[in-house]
C-alpha cells in the first residue's frame, strides 16, 4: 500500500487532467433538446443537418460518440475544416423533455441518425415509411469512416477524416455560379459585427451612443457590462449567433485571404442596392467616412478616399451611386491584379478579375468580343447588381422557408426581393450610428432582423388564419 499510494494519487490526478481536458475541449456536435431544436435548425447557415438520436445510458451510443465526433470536427465549430456545410447535432432521447421530439421522428433504436436540409426538421415529423421526404435515415454510419463515406456520396464530395483546414476548397469555389452569393447573407452579418467591433475599439461608446434607446429597443441602457469598449462592448449587433467565426461566400482557400475585406465589399454593395435616390449621397459619404476612419489598411483607406474625393457633384440617384461603387471596386481589382501577380499573393481560387465576368452577366458587355471586356452596358450592369446583391443574396431565405404553404412562401419571398429596391432600414435607428460614420453596418443587421421579424409576423398571421 506504501507503493500503491503514489500511484493512486497519480491516477487520480491523471483522471482529473483527463476531465479538465474534456471540459476544455467541448464536443463538436451540438446537443439539442426540445426547447432549442427548432430554433437552432431554423437559423443555421448549413446546407444539411445530421441529427443523432441517442440515450445517455446506452453503451453502444457511448462507444459511437468518438466516431461521430471525428466527423463533427470537420464540419462544426469556428475552427471547422469545412464550415457552414453540415450541422451535426445530437438529441438525448432518455431525457423526459425530449420524449415527444424523439417520438415525432420515430426513434426506434439508438443511436439513430437522420439527414436532411435543416429547415426540413423544423416543426416536422418523420417515419421510415414516409415517401417523398427530404429527411433520410443514415443506414451506414456505424464508424466515422462509413459515416463520412455516406456523406460524401450524398454531397458528391471527397472529404477525408484527416483533412486539415483549406483542403478540398476547390470543391465549393465556383465563382461564376450566381447562386453562390446567397451564402453571403451570413458574411454580411459577420462583416457588420467586425465593423462594429472596430468602431467600438476606436471610438468608444460615447460618440455612438447618441440615442441608443432608438437604436435598439431590446438593449437596456446601462444593463450591459462596462468593458474596454464601453457599455456597447457586449452588444451583439447581429444577434447571439454572430460572430460565427467563419466566412461562407468570402471564405478564402488560405487563412490570410478574403474574409473581412471581401465581406465588407459585399456589405457595401448589398446596401448600395437598397438605397433610395434621396439617400444615395448620404450613403456615399457614410461609406467614404467609414473606410477613411475605420478601415485599418493604410493603402486601402488612402486609395479609396482618393476615389471618394474625386466625386465633385452630390449623387442624385441611386443608380449613379451603385455604379460608382461598382466602378471603384473594379479600379481596386485592376490595381490588385497586377500587384498580386507580381508578388504571388493572390488566392489561387479567387484571382482578381474585372467584375462581373461574362459568365455571370453576358448582357453587361456591349460587345461579344471577349477582348473588349471593358465596354459595359451600364444599365444592364445596374440591373445585374440589383438582382445579384438584392434578390439573389437573400434567396437563401426562400430556400430555408419553414412554411410549406406555397402561397405564403411566395408572399414572403416577394417581400424580400421587393426590399432590394427600397430603404427598409429604420432611419431613426440609423441616426445614432451614422454619427460615428458606420450607418451601413447597423443598417445591414437591422435590415435582416427586420426581415426576420416580418417573416415571423407573416408566419403568425398565417397560423392564425389556418
Ligand atoms: C473599400 C476597400 C478598399 C480596398 N482597397 C485595397 C487596396 O487598396 N489594396 C489592397 O491590397 N486591398 C484593398 N482592399 C481589399 C481587396 O479589395 C479585397 O477585398 C481583398 O483582396 C479580398 O479579395 P476577394 O478576392 O475576396 O474579392 P473582393 O475584391 O473582396 O470582392 C468580394 C466579392 O465581390 C464581388 N465583386 C468583385 N468586384 C466587384 C465589383 N466591381 N462590383 C461588385 N462586386 C464585385 C465578387 O463576387 C468578389 O468575390 C480593399 C477593400 C475594401 C473593402
Strand content: 5-15%
Q: Write out the distinct hetero groups bound to the structure.
A: flavin-adenine dinucleotide
Number of helices: 17
Summed over residues and divided by their number, the pLDDT gives a mean of: 78
Number of strands: 5
Helix content: 40-55%
Order of adjacent strands in the largest pleated sheet? 1-3-2-4-5
List keywords for this structure.
disordered N terminus, 17 helices, 466 residues, mainly alpha, disordered C terminus
Summarize the structure in short.
With 466 residues, this protein is mainly alpha-helical. It has helices at residues 4-24, 37-43, 59-75, 99-104, 144-155, 184-203, 205-208, 212-215, 260-272, 280-294, 298-309, 318-343, 378-392, 395-399, 406-418, 427-434, 439-465; strands at 30-32, 48-54, 86-92, 112-116, 136-137.
Describe how the helices and strands are arranged.
Blueprint: H1 4-24, E1 30-32, H2 37-43, E2 48-54, H3 59-75, E3 86-92, H4 99-104, E4 112-116, E5 136-137, H5 144-155, H6 184-203, H7 205-208, H8 212-215, H9 260-272, H10 280-294, H11 298-309, H12 318-343, H13 378-392, H14 395-399, H15 406-418, H16 427-434, H17 439-465
Parallel strand pairs: 1-3, 2-3
Antiparallel strand pairs: 2-4, 4-5
Helix pairs in contact: 3-5, 6-9, 6-17, 9-12, 9-13, 9-17, 10-11, 16-17
The chain binds flavin-adenine dinucleotide.
